[in-house]
Write a structure and sequence with these properties.
heterotrimer; A alpha/beta (379); B mainly beta (161); C alpha/beta (342); A: alpha/beta; Peroxisomal Thiolase, Chain A, domain 1; two-stranded antiparallel sheet; 11 helices; C: 342 residues; alpha/beta; five-stranded mixed β-sheet; globular
Chain lengths: 379, 161, 342
């Protein structure tokens, strides 16, 4: 990478089932303005805007970057719209960072968002398409058999999923922006919640949220002593269906992690904490193994290593399990990783975090994006 | 006139599409009308895809050879759907499953019926149950049901979950 | 900037309705052809980026299905824009600047025949104030054309001349659909469909795909400059007779001095003059020798094709060819790519 990339501003909206108080432009602007204020720059200081979100059918607006150009101060500037399914928030941040690392631009505003309350996400994801079998039941129906395969392969006990569900909601209670606030969450409560897509219980699933996340990236620290620095980025994809495909631990995820560590010049053991894209509780142990952070993901969970006070904290913000504006969920992971190494994560801060991993995935576990951010400028 | 703020308005979107199947899927659907499951084989890696793929997802070459597969298969993994939603074919609870149809190399996501959901197992042997009236859609296979054969071992399909 | 070259280009024939090829097969065929044109294999590609639109294809994640056509195994470094493939090429160019890969593949695909592109494009308008009015791209283009006539910047005969030339050139381009030859004089006798525009002033909407291979090796036309810029969305917020974003993007791409060929992503004949004026060029340059997007308008592909045809022009002897791609209502968002001999 030629030019180092600094993350100098981070802005997030409050996440909620319905942000009826804001229009779509209002939502993206709330996050963008907070990121600009955090960076101490103005709209005119921005060279280009990179926007990401998941399918347009979630809001019923085709290529919404067009009508959002004004709200994001992009008029008269380059503007891009990235869409890589659920990984899009991460991919958007990667594309934005490359616009700086490449020397094309000096300062970028990147925003990812979703206003799921504008339409029905379940409908948008489960559309009856001619010629297809009528089995799809939203994302849960797709991922539940894969979770069962993980449990079978690793002999993981059933309570691992409950533990993750509890831990992430306890973390969310420390994050005032998080959508789900369930302060009395407990293993019993998760266990007693309805079984939806066996083996996935209701409290092991993510919510549907409205929200936006934004970052300002710059080729300089712009005077910010606490800027986060991009140390490595990666995107990898593989087809949804092919013979012998390992859907439990996809090769694309492994390769993506390997690329990111290599660009950062580190090993997984150097990572202090990570924000992984976990829409169903079981994906925490699955991704821990996939990205090389733990040999046995479920044992790491079982031993409490991934809790906020553990030696490998995961999803300190509460994760996707607590806030899920789909198109933004990946960027929230990336931004929360950056907040950690800036020491700006508030009540869910990991003491002394120097290197953090942000992770996102999408499609049928096909599209992966990651970045590694650090408190020090890369050498 | 009300002074209440406007927070929502309905903007219904209706778009009509005439979807074309493409020649590869059209061939597949013609066979469905005859009650046959026909996949496609990649000329390079020799893998058989069901539903057929026009191009091999790993080799990136056009598939040409058609090959009849099934009607039996193996449940490699599954989920029990326990809540109602719009457009369901069966009453919940019912199972959706990855069915590795005999003669293919990729599991097909489909429904398992005529089976107590608490009896669902990885490795269970099943067969396709066809609808009374066959239409050019994979839904003409209403579901898969247990075929009475003994379960197969996990190791025999663990690479195709 | 690291020099980047167009190593290969391919497009499928733009068909009024392609019933034979599904998305993976379209992508397989066009990317294989572009790689063959470049003399490269799939394994040489370090980064892949595509452009497509879910609403055009009628389903979410249409790009995920199309990935099957790439043979994305072992897993590839890949991204997607919900934009014309020209912006996918831009992202690929940026990735080559990032420096970790040397060959990149950009492609786009789309089918007009599945639904109504007019209806889909109506949904790209501001959902609060414009889309509910149901005013589609054609009436909007007619408003713009009217503004041009009222400002004395064009005549209906100018629009007709663009139609005559586009059809004549398109009928010489084997990838464009055959259209009825039409003299400007005859075109002017045909009825309005949204005055002052007539039916032939709008695009021939097609199905198709295109792919371009970029390389850091000097094996084809060099990208001398590439940039893009977006204008205000609301038609009422801008002077419809000019395009500031095209002028800005062209300047950022190195300016138009010495340009001898332009390939313009013009969807309505009335817009050609706006684009040329914004570029500071006139009809003394060769304009859209492929026939342009007026006669082969495949959504999410037409812009990328302009870059491909501009590269072909350089391969054919042009000294400095300019490609233009557009997105959004009334030329809202524009990309300019300038190509020169390696």
């Amino acid at each position: 990478m030629s030019t180092p990339v600094a993350i100098t501003g981070i802005g997030q909206t409050r996440y909620a089932a319905k942000r009826d108080d804001l229009s779509m432009p209002g939502l993206v602007r709330e996050a963008a303005k907070r990121a600009l204020d955090d960076a101490g720059v103005d709209w005119s200081d921005i060279d280009a805007v990179v926007l990401g979100k998941a399918p347009d059918m979630f809001e019923g607006v085709v290529q919404p970057e067009l009508f959002l150009a004004g709200a994001l101060g992009a008029v008269g500037k380059p503007m891009m719209r990235v869409h890589t399914a659920g990984s899009v928030g991460g991919s958007t941040a990667v594309v934005a960072s490359h616009l700086i690392s490449s020397g094309v631009h000096k300062r970028i505003l990147t925003v990812a968002w979703e206003k799921q309350s504008e339409s029905n996400a379940m409908w948008a994801l489960s559309q009856r398409f001619p010629f297809a079998p009528p089995t799809t039941a939203g994302a849960g129906g797709y991922f539940a058999p894969i979770i069962r395969a993980y449990m079978r392969r690793t002999d993981a006990p059933e309570h691992i999923g409950w533990q993750v569900a509890v831990k992430d909601r306890q973390n969310a209670a420390l994050n005032p922006l998080a959508h789900l606030q369930i302060p009395d969450i407990s293993l019993e409560k998760v266990q007693a919640s309805p079984m939806l897509w066996d083996p996935i219980r209701y409290l092991e699933t993510c919510p549907s949220s409205d929200g936006a996340c934004a970052m300002v990236m710059s080729c300089e620290d712009d005077g910010h002593k606490d800027a986060a620095w991009v140390h490595g980025t990666a995107m990898r994809s593989e087809p949804m269906l092919f013979a012998g495909r390992d859907e439990v631990s996809p090769q694309a995820g492994k390769d993506c992690a390997r690329d990111a560590y290599a660009e950062a010049g580190i090993t997984p053991a150097d990572i202090d904490c990570a924000e992984l894209y976990v829409p169903f509780s079981w994906y925490e142990p699955m991704w821990l193994e996939n990205v090389g952070l733990a040999e046995s993901g479920w044992r790491a969970v079982d031993e409490g290593r991934t809790a906020l006070g553990g030696d490998l904290p995961i999803n300190m913000s509460g994760g996707v399990l607590s806030s899920n504006p789909i198109g933004a969920s990946g960027m929230i992971r990336f931004a929360e990783a950056a907040l950690q190494v800036r020491g700006r994560a508030g009540a869910h801060q990991v003491d002394g975090a120097k290197l953090a991993l942000g992770h996102a995935y999408g499609g049928g576990s096909q599209f992966f994006s990651m970045w590694i951010v650090g408190s020090e400028r890369p050498s | 006139m009300s002074d209440d703020p406007v927070t929502r308005f309905k903007a219904p979107v209706r778009l009509d599409y005439t979807v074309t199947a493409g020649s590869v899927t059209a061939d597949f659907l013609r066979e469905i009308l005859k009650g046959r499951l026909v996949g496609r084989r990649c000329p390079d890696c020799r893998c058989v895809y069901l539903p057929p793929r026009s191009a091999c997802p790993t080799c990136g070459v056009i598939t040409t050879e058609q090959i009849e597969v099934g009607p039996n298969g193996t449940v490699t993994t599954f989920s029990v759907i326990r809540f109602p939603f719009e457009g369901q074919v069966l009453e919940p609870p019912y199972a959706c499953a990855h069915v590795l149809v005999d003669g293919t190399d990729t599991p097909l996501l489909h429904i398992v019926g005529n089976c107590d959901v608490d009896d669902m197992r990885m490795g269970m042997r099943v067969r396709a149950v066809w609808a009374e009236e066959l239409k050019p859609t994979l839904a003409s296979v209403r579901y898969f049901e247990p075929n009475g054969e003994p379960d197969v071992t996990y190791d025999s399909f663990s690479g195709h979950v | 900037m690291r020099p980047v070259y167009v190593a290969g280009f391919a497009e499928l024939p733009h068909l009024l309705q392609d019933n034979l090829l599904d998305e993976p097969e379209m992508v397989q065929r066009v990317t294989a052809a572009a790689l063959a044109d470049a003399g490269l294999g799939r394994d040489d590609v370090g980064f892949t980026c595509s452009g497509s639109n879910d609403y055009v294809m009628g389903r979410p994640f249409s790009f995920a299905t199309a990935l099957d056509g790439l043979g994305a195994w072992p897993p590839i470094r890949e991204s997607h824009v919900e934009m014309d493939g020209a912006w996918a090429l831009y992202e690929a160019w940026v990735r080559l600047q990032h420096g970790d890969v040397d060959v990149a593949l950009a492609y786009g695909f789309g089918k007009s025949s599945l639904g109504s592109v007019e209806a889909v494009r109506t949904l790209e308008l501001d959902p609060y104030s414009l889309a509910p009015l149901g005013i589609g791209p054609l009436p909007l283009a007619a408003l713009q054309a009217r503004a041009l006539l009222d400002a004395g910047l064009a005549t209906e005969a100018d629009f007709a001349a663009v139609v005559e030339r586009s059809r004549r050139d398109g009928n010489r381009n084997h990838t464009a659909p055959m259209t009825e030859a039409m003299s400007a004089a005859h075109a002017l006798t045909l009825p309005y469909i949204s005055s002052p525009l007539r039916g032939h002033d709008g695009p021939v909407r097609t199905d198709g795909a295109a792919a371009i291979v970029l390389s850091t090796e000097p094996v084809g036309p060099r990208i001398a400059g590439i940039s893009h810029c977006i204008d205000a969305h609301q038609p009422g917020f801008r002077d419809l007779t000019v395009s500031r974003s095209i002028a800005t993007a062209a300047a950022a791409a190195g300016g138009t001095s010495g340009v001898d060929v332009v390939e313009l992503h013009v969807e309505y004949s009335s817009q050609e003059g706006i684009v040329l004026r914004a570029l500071g060029l006139d009809s003394s340059v060769s304009v859209s020798p492929s026939g342009g997007a007026l006669v082969a308008n495949t959504p999410m592909v037409a812009g990328l094709c302009r870059i491909g045809h501009a590269a072909n022009a350089v391969r054919g002897g042009a000294k400095r060819a300019l490609a233009h791609a557009t997105s959004g209502p009334l030329l809202q968002h524009n990309l300019i790519c300038i190509l020169e001999p390696a």
